[in-house]
Amino acid sequence: MEEPVVTPEALIAEARAAGVGRMITVACARNEWAPSLALAEAHAPYVAVAAGIHPQEADKEALVTAEELGELAQNPLVVGLGETGLDYYYTPDSKAAQRASFEVHCHVARTAGLPVVIHTRDAEEDTLAVLRNFSGLAFELHCFTGTARLAEEALALGGYISLAGIVTFKNAKDLQAIARTLPQNRVLVETDAPYLSPEPVRGRRNAPAHVPHVGSFLAGLWQVDPTEVAEKTTENAFRLFSRLPERPCDS
Ligand SMILES: [Zn+2]
Q1: CA of residue 111 to ligand 1 center, whole Å
Q2: Nearest CA-CA partner of 159 in 240, 232, 44, 250
Q3: Which long-range contacts (CB under 8 A, 24 or more apart) does 229-236 make?
Q4: Distance separating alpha carbons of residues 18 and 101, to the nearest angstrom
Q5: CB 102 within 8 A of CB 52
Q6: What pTM does this model have?
Q7: pLDDT tens for residues 39-70?
Q8: Distance in Å, CA 84 to ligand 1 centroid
Q9: Cα of 77 to ligand 1 centre, how many Å?
Q10: How confident is the model at residue 245 (pLDDT cuts 50, 70, 90)?
Q11: CA of 112 to the centre of ligand 1 (A)
Protein backbone atom coordinates (compact mmCIF):
# COMPACT_ATOMS: atom_id res chain seq x y z
CA MET A 1 0.00 0.00 0.00
CA GLU A 2 1.32 3.40 -0.93
CA GLU A 3 1.87 5.82 1.89
CA PRO A 4 0.42 9.32 1.59
CA VAL A 5 2.50 12.13 0.16
CA VAL A 6 4.25 14.20 2.78
CA THR A 7 5.57 17.68 2.21
CA PRO A 8 9.13 18.73 3.02
CA GLU A 9 7.63 21.22 5.49
CA ALA A 10 5.91 18.40 7.39
CA LEU A 11 9.05 16.24 7.40
CA ILE A 12 11.20 19.09 8.67
CA ALA A 13 8.71 20.05 11.39
CA GLU A 14 8.45 16.41 12.48
CA ALA A 15 12.24 16.11 12.57
CA ARG A 16 12.69 19.28 14.58
CA ALA A 17 10.05 18.11 17.05
CA ALA A 18 12.11 14.91 17.44
CA GLY A 19 15.23 16.96 18.25
CA VAL A 20 16.82 16.74 14.81
CA GLY A 21 18.12 20.25 14.15
CA ARG A 22 20.05 19.77 10.91
CA MET A 23 19.41 17.60 7.87
CA ILE A 24 21.60 16.91 4.85
CA THR A 25 19.65 16.06 1.75
CA VAL A 26 21.63 14.06 -0.77
CA ALA A 27 21.44 14.90 -4.47
CA CYS A 28 22.72 11.85 -6.35
CA ALA A 29 22.25 12.81 -10.01
CA ARG A 30 22.51 16.00 -12.04
CA ASN A 31 18.76 16.51 -12.19
CA GLU A 32 18.58 16.43 -8.38
CA TRP A 33 21.14 19.17 -7.78
CA ALA A 34 18.97 22.23 -8.45
CA PRO A 35 15.83 20.98 -6.63
CA SER A 36 17.91 20.02 -3.59
CA LEU A 37 19.60 23.41 -3.51
CA ALA A 38 16.20 25.10 -3.78
CA LEU A 39 14.92 22.99 -0.89
CA ALA A 40 17.91 23.90 1.26
CA GLU A 41 17.56 27.55 0.39
CA ALA A 42 13.89 27.52 1.36
CA HIS A 43 14.62 25.73 4.63
CA ALA A 44 17.92 27.20 5.79
CA PRO A 45 19.45 26.62 8.24
CA TYR A 46 17.75 23.27 8.85
CA VAL A 47 18.52 21.70 5.48
CA ALA A 48 21.87 21.55 3.69
CA VAL A 49 22.99 19.60 0.61
CA ALA A 50 25.49 16.94 -0.34
CA ALA A 51 25.65 16.69 -4.12
CA GLY A 52 27.35 14.43 -6.62
CA ILE A 53 26.77 11.50 -8.95
CA HIS A 54 25.89 8.21 -7.29
CA PRO A 55 28.07 5.26 -8.35
CA GLN A 56 25.01 3.44 -9.68
CA GLU A 57 24.44 6.43 -11.99
CA ALA A 58 28.08 6.79 -12.99
CA ASP A 59 27.77 5.28 -16.47
CA LYS A 60 24.26 6.61 -17.12
CA GLU A 61 25.42 10.20 -17.28
CA ALA A 62 28.49 11.87 -18.74
CA LEU A 63 31.52 11.66 -16.46
CA VAL A 64 31.23 14.39 -13.89
CA THR A 65 33.76 17.16 -14.38
CA ALA A 66 35.88 19.00 -11.86
CA GLU A 67 34.26 22.21 -13.12
CA GLU A 68 30.74 20.99 -12.31
CA LEU A 69 31.68 19.76 -8.87
CA GLY A 70 33.81 22.83 -8.25
CA GLU A 71 30.81 25.03 -8.92
CA LEU A 72 28.70 23.00 -6.49
CA ALA A 73 31.47 23.17 -3.91
CA GLN A 74 31.43 26.96 -4.03
CA ASN A 75 27.77 27.07 -3.09
CA PRO A 76 27.49 27.73 0.67
CA LEU A 77 24.46 25.43 0.86
CA VAL A 78 26.64 22.49 -0.23
CA VAL A 79 28.31 20.92 2.81
CA GLY A 80 29.73 17.83 1.12
CA LEU A 81 30.17 16.06 -2.22
CA GLY A 82 28.44 12.75 -2.87
CA GLU A 83 27.10 10.23 -2.71
CA THR A 84 30.00 8.98 -4.71
CA GLY A 85 31.97 5.76 -4.35
CA LEU A 86 31.81 2.25 -5.75
CA ASP A 87 28.93 -0.22 -5.95
CA TYR A 88 29.94 -3.55 -7.45
CA TYR A 89 26.83 -5.25 -6.06
CA TYR A 90 24.17 -3.49 -8.13
CA THR A 91 26.34 -2.14 -10.93
CA PRO A 92 29.34 -4.45 -11.48
CA ASP A 93 29.53 -3.54 -15.18
CA SER A 94 30.51 0.09 -14.74
CA LYS A 95 33.57 -0.24 -12.52
CA ALA A 96 35.78 2.01 -14.63
CA ALA A 97 33.18 4.78 -14.87
CA GLN A 98 32.47 4.56 -11.14
CA ARG A 99 36.10 4.81 -10.24
CA ALA A 100 36.74 7.75 -12.56
CA SER A 101 33.74 9.57 -11.10
CA PHE A 102 34.75 8.76 -7.52
CA GLU A 103 38.24 10.14 -8.15
CA VAL A 104 36.91 13.43 -9.54
CA HIS A 105 34.73 13.86 -6.44
CA CYS A 106 37.69 13.16 -4.14
CA HIS A 107 39.95 15.55 -6.01
CA VAL A 108 37.49 18.45 -5.96
CA ALA A 109 36.42 17.82 -2.36
CA ARG A 110 39.96 17.80 -1.09
CA THR A 111 40.78 20.99 -2.97
CA ALA A 112 37.63 22.69 -1.64
CA GLY A 113 38.08 21.37 1.90
CA LEU A 114 34.73 19.58 1.79
CA PRO A 115 34.00 16.02 2.93
CA VAL A 116 32.82 13.28 0.57
CA VAL A 117 29.85 11.06 1.32
CA ILE A 118 30.91 7.60 0.20
CA HIS A 119 28.67 4.74 -0.84
CA THR A 120 30.59 1.47 -1.05
CA ARG A 121 29.19 -2.00 -1.61
CA ASP A 122 31.12 -5.15 -2.52
CA ALA A 123 34.04 -2.89 -3.40
CA GLU A 124 36.11 -2.55 -0.25
CA GLU A 125 39.57 -3.01 -1.75
CA ASP A 126 39.06 -0.58 -4.59
CA THR A 127 37.39 1.96 -2.28
CA LEU A 128 40.38 1.87 0.05
CA ALA A 129 42.79 2.08 -2.88
CA VAL A 130 41.16 5.33 -4.01
CA LEU A 131 41.05 6.77 -0.51
CA ARG A 132 44.74 6.00 0.05
CA ASN A 133 45.51 8.10 -3.03
CA PHE A 134 43.75 11.11 -1.49
CA SER A 135 45.41 11.47 1.88
CA GLY A 136 43.98 14.27 3.93
CA LEU A 137 40.55 13.89 2.34
CA ALA A 138 37.65 14.26 4.78
CA PHE A 139 35.07 11.53 4.27
CA GLU A 140 32.36 9.36 5.71
CA LEU A 141 31.40 5.83 4.75
CA HIS A 142 27.66 6.33 4.60
CA CYS A 143 25.16 3.65 5.61
CA PHE A 144 28.04 1.46 6.70
CA THR A 145 27.57 -2.29 6.18
CA GLY A 146 31.17 -3.29 5.55
CA THR A 147 33.72 -5.46 7.29
CA ALA A 148 35.67 -4.68 10.45
CA ARG A 149 38.74 -4.27 8.29
CA LEU A 150 37.09 -1.63 6.12
CA ALA A 151 36.05 0.27 9.24
CA GLU A 152 39.55 0.06 10.71
CA GLU A 153 41.26 1.21 7.54
CA ALA A 154 38.79 4.04 6.99
CA LEU A 155 39.30 5.23 10.55
CA ALA A 156 43.07 5.04 10.10
CA LEU A 157 42.69 7.29 7.04
CA GLY A 158 40.83 9.82 9.20
CA GLY A 159 37.33 8.89 8.03
CA TYR A 160 34.01 8.68 9.80
CA ILE A 161 31.61 5.74 9.89
CA SER A 162 27.95 6.57 9.44
CA LEU A 163 25.37 4.13 10.76
CA ALA A 164 21.83 3.93 9.41
CA GLY A 165 18.76 1.90 10.40
CA ILE A 166 20.36 -1.38 9.32
CA VAL A 167 22.36 -1.52 12.56
CA THR A 168 19.07 -1.87 14.49
CA PHE A 169 17.91 -4.91 12.49
CA LYS A 170 17.76 -8.21 14.36
CA ASN A 171 19.85 -10.02 11.74
CA ALA A 172 22.64 -7.39 11.74
CA LYS A 173 24.75 -9.08 14.40
CA ASP A 174 28.05 -8.63 12.56
CA LEU A 175 27.42 -4.94 12.01
CA GLN A 176 26.40 -4.51 15.64
CA ALA A 177 29.65 -6.16 16.76
CA ILE A 178 31.62 -3.68 14.64
CA ALA A 179 29.54 -0.71 15.81
CA ARG A 180 30.22 -1.62 19.42
CA THR A 181 33.97 -1.15 18.90
CA LEU A 182 33.93 2.10 16.88
CA PRO A 183 35.54 5.16 18.48
CA GLN A 184 32.74 7.45 19.63
CA ASN A 185 34.36 10.53 18.11
CA ARG A 186 34.17 9.06 14.59
CA VAL A 187 30.61 7.84 14.35
CA LEU A 188 27.68 9.50 12.64
CA VAL A 189 24.03 8.49 12.57
CA GLU A 190 21.80 8.89 9.54
CA THR A 191 18.53 7.66 8.13
CA ASP A 192 19.19 7.21 4.39
CA ALA A 193 15.49 8.14 4.20
CA PRO A 194 13.18 7.17 2.63
CA TYR A 195 14.86 3.76 2.84
CA LEU A 196 15.82 1.45 5.69
CA SER A 197 13.63 2.62 8.56
CA PRO A 198 15.20 1.61 11.86
CA GLU A 199 13.53 -0.52 14.51
CA PRO A 200 10.95 0.07 15.95
CA VAL A 201 9.54 1.74 12.82
CA ARG A 202 11.02 -0.76 10.38
CA GLY A 203 8.88 -1.32 7.29
CA ARG A 204 7.47 2.20 7.31
CA ARG A 205 8.76 4.93 5.05
CA ASN A 206 11.84 6.39 6.68
CA ALA A 207 12.14 10.07 7.60
CA PRO A 208 14.71 12.32 9.29
CA ALA A 209 12.67 12.23 12.52
CA HIS A 210 13.63 8.56 12.87
CA VAL A 211 17.35 9.14 13.31
CA PRO A 212 17.11 9.20 17.14
CA HIS A 213 16.11 5.51 16.96
CA VAL A 214 19.53 4.75 15.45
CA GLY A 215 21.20 6.77 18.21
CA SER A 216 19.23 5.03 20.94
CA PHE A 217 20.16 1.64 19.58
CA LEU A 218 23.80 2.66 19.50
CA ALA A 219 23.51 3.83 23.10
CA GLY A 220 22.51 0.28 23.98
CA LEU A 221 25.55 -1.14 22.17
CA TRP A 222 27.87 1.38 23.82
CA GLN A 223 26.12 1.11 27.17
CA VAL A 224 25.80 4.85 27.52
CA ASP A 225 22.88 7.23 27.79
CA PRO A 226 21.14 8.12 24.47
CA THR A 227 21.75 11.83 25.15
CA GLU A 228 25.47 11.11 25.16
CA VAL A 229 25.23 9.47 21.73
CA ALA A 230 23.18 12.43 20.48
CA GLU A 231 25.80 14.89 21.72
CA LYS A 232 28.77 12.93 20.37
CA THR A 233 27.30 12.25 16.95
CA THR A 234 26.13 15.85 16.63
CA GLU A 235 29.60 17.13 17.48
CA ASN A 236 31.09 14.68 14.98
CA ALA A 237 28.71 15.80 12.24
CA PHE A 238 29.57 19.45 12.77
CA ARG A 239 33.30 18.61 12.77
CA LEU A 240 33.09 16.65 9.50
CA PHE A 241 30.54 18.85 7.73
CA SER A 242 32.25 22.01 8.87
CA ARG A 243 30.14 24.15 6.56
CA LEU A 244 26.87 23.18 8.28
CA PRO A 245 25.27 26.28 9.77
CA GLU A 246 25.90 26.73 13.49
CA ARG A 247 24.21 24.47 15.97
CA PRO A 248 20.71 25.66 16.62
CA CYS A 249 19.89 26.91 20.09
CA ASP A 250 16.24 25.87 19.68
CA SER A 251 16.82 22.15 19.28
ZN1 LIG B 1 24.16 5.00 -0.56
Answers
A1: 23
A2: 240
A3: 229/184, 229/189, 230/19, 232/184, 232/185, 232/187, 233/187, 233/188, 233/189, 234/21, 235/185, 236/160, 236/185, 236/186, 236/187, 236/188
A4: 36
A5: no
A6: 0.95
A7: 999 999 999 999 999 999 999 989 999 999 99
A8: 8
A9: 20
A10: confident
A11: 22
